[in-house]
Specification:
The structure holds two protein chains of two kinds.
Chain A: H1 7-46, H2 51-66, H3 69-77, H4 84-87, H5 92-95, H6 98-123, H7 127-135, H8 140-170, H9 182-193, H10 196-225
Helix pairs in contact in A: 1-2, 1-6, 1-8, 1-9, 1-10, 2-6, 3-6, 6-8, 7-8, 8-10, 9-10
Chain B: H1 9-41, H2 46-61, H3 64-86, H4 95-120, H5 124-132, H6 137-167, H7 179-190, H8 193-222
Helix pairs in contact in B: 1-2, 1-4, 1-7, 2-4, 3-4, 4-6, 5-6, 6-8, 7-8
Classes of the chains: A mainly alpha, B mainly alpha.
Chain lengths: ~240, ~230
């Protein structure tokens, strides 16, 4: 037992960490993609003035934001086996699969958070924009398609970025349902070597790199799509006003 | 009800106490870490500012579970090194202590940002007036800035608490006997996992709902005498 790093352990485990990183990134991107697709229409329903449309969405986000993701994952992965009807259904091979269950519960969870983020951004629409859209005779679909959603999704970028980093960190809990993600690899390396610094220090480097990579991506996205809202005082030379 | 839960109701309910104890203990730790972090970020000392910046950046860049495992196993490793070097008998860190300390340490980083913003929201004149009266720095903090900071910190504080309560679910993964761990035991012996995980979900939802109501009351209490703007 010496406090210096045993680099051989790190070098040997590196391919495992890279493979685990792939699992983490695949789960992250597939859940985010599905969550985004579901959250946009749900956010539109969430801000609806008809309670029949808004209330079910509100109940969904309340339940999924009010309970731990670990409980949601356990309910899907371990819980569904309780019902014979599900065990005998055609969907059972899918519902018994750790990958599918992880993807499904992460998707439901991030959909709930993302729906509220997008709904908040929709509510922050300046009244004049909606009035202008109505004044030129846009129907509801056109209002959302050309005015409300493009602006709201831009406004939601900073918060959505936080959500993406949050989901990335949350993926660590799939190590509890036999998926070999980054955290599972670290726990296995620790279990065989009993060297916490080598196991958890290495995995920390991977998570850090991913966190800062995502933060950097969102900073670029904000420059690209939120540039017009940046509070900068610059004197642009004549003719270069629309440069970026 | 008891029939439905095969007599395991009280077992899981007993775990609620463990979960709440960890949550409240972590909140107290988080307030301490958060206050130290905020004061360090606002301090005149460059070293203190850099250290606090490193603390908040590191914690917010890593998953909670990874930090928890690192503190749980790494902390034990360091304690073992220390006790061996000193020739003392082995000392085991109890999982409850490791869990509470880690969650407190993690959410202290989030509270540090909340508290920093809340301190900055107090008009400078308040602390300046206290200094002009000859108050020593500790007294300015305790009697002038800290009581006023609370009101500004409540929204961020409420948010942190709600996220933290849910994060306590992770302690079941480092072997703590909390509500979720007990639910999994009950699920295994009754073969009714859905029932018991659903029970924990309902309890978490109840804790969240009660917290929201309580925090709203707290916000009203601390905002007494603040003029409301009519938009």
């Amino acid at each position: 037992m010496s406090p210096v790093i045993d680099w051989d352990v790190v070098r040997e485990a590196l391919p495992l960490f890279v493979r685990g990183w792939g699992v983490t990134l695949l789960l992250l991107s597939s859940a985010l993609a599905a969550g985004f697709v579901l959250a946009v229409p749900l956010a539109v329903l969430r801000v609806s003035r008809y309670p029949l449309l808004a209330l079910p969405v509100r109940a969904f986000t309340f339940v999924f934001r009010g309970t731990p993701l670990l409980v949601q994952l356990s309910l899907v992965y371990y819980g569904l086996a309780q019902f014979p009807a599900i065990r005998e259904s055609v969907a059972w091979p899918l519902l018994r699969d750790a990958w599918f269950c992880a993807w499904a519960s992460f998707t439901l969870n991030t959909t709930a958070y993302t729906t509220e983020i997008f709904a908040g951004a929709l509510r922050a629409t300046p009244a004049g924009e909606l009035e202008a859209a109505r004044a030129i005779g846009m129907d509801a679909v056109a209002q959302y398609r050309y005015v409300l959603l493009p602006a709201a999704l831009r406004r939601a970028l900073p918060q959505y970025g936080n959500e993406v980093v949050g989901v990335m960190h949350a993926t660590a809990i799939v190590s509890a349902v036999s998926l070999v993600d980054l955290t599972r690899v670290a726990r296995d390396v620790y279990a065989t070597s009993l060297l916490p610094l080598e196991a958890f220090g290495t995995v920390a480097v991977f998570y850090f790199a991913t966190t800062f990579g995502l933060v950097g991506l969102f900073r670029l996205a904000e420059q690209r799509w939120l540039g017009h809202l940046r509070a900068t005082v610059t004197v642009a030379p004549a003719g270069a006003a629309h440069a970026h | 009800m008891n029939d439905l839960l095969h007599g395991y109701g009280p077992v899981v309910a007993g775990g609620v106490g463990v979960t709440l104890r960890i949550a409240v203990g972590s909140l107290a730790m988080a307030c301490v870490f958060g206050l130290i972090g905020a004061l360090a970020r606002l301090s005149a000392s460059r070293i203190a500012r850099v250290l606090a910046q490193v603390y908040t950046t590191v914690v917010r860049g890593l998953p909670e579970l990874v930090l928890m495992l690192a503190v749980f196993y790494g902390g034990q490793y360091l304690v073992n090194l220390a006790t061996q070097a000193a020739g003392w008998p082995d000392l085991d860190i109890p999982p409850a202590t490791a869990g509470t300390l880690t969650i407190g340490f993690i959410f202290g980083a989030y509270l540090a940002e909340t508290f920093r913003g809340a301190f900055l929201a107090i008009p400078r004149g308040q602390a300046e007036a206290a200094r002009a009266f000859g108050y020593p720095p500790a007294r300015i903090l305790l009697h002038v800035t800290l009581p006023q900071m609370v009101r500004h910190a409540i929204p961020g504080f409420a948010n942190t608490w709600l996220v933290m309560v849910k994060a306590t679910a992770l302690v079941s993964l480092i072997g703590l006997d909390d509500m979720i761990h007990r639910a999994s035991l009950a699920a295994a012996s009754t073969r009714e996992p859905f029932t018991f995980y659903l029970l924990t979900a309902v309890i978490y939802l109840a804790i969240t709902s009660v917290s929201i109501v309580a925090l709203r009351a707290l916000e009203t209490r601390f905002s007494l005498g603040v003029r409301r703007l009519d938009f």
